[in-house]
Write a structure and sequence with these properties.
Structural class: mainly alpha
Number of strands: 0
Shape: elongated
Helix content: 25-40%
Number of helices: 2
Strand content: under 5%
Largest sheet: none
Number of domains: 1
Length: about 70
Amino acid sequence: MQAIKQYTEVINGSIHVNLPKDFTAKRVELIILAVDGNNPDTNNFQKLLLDSPEMTDEEYQAIQEKRRHLNQWN
């Protein structure tokens, strides 16, 4: 399956998409999503990231040490 993802501006209610020369499909499915700050999915994801707990340097080092130990197993 060939897929193209690109961002473009809406001008006077229209968009223009340039397809590469090697895009050979005769029919396509268009899914148009807003990418401005009003997108609820984007806002929810940003809120999730901002509300997530942070890892201290000590916690990170402990995980790295455990990972090094486990990587020694064959």
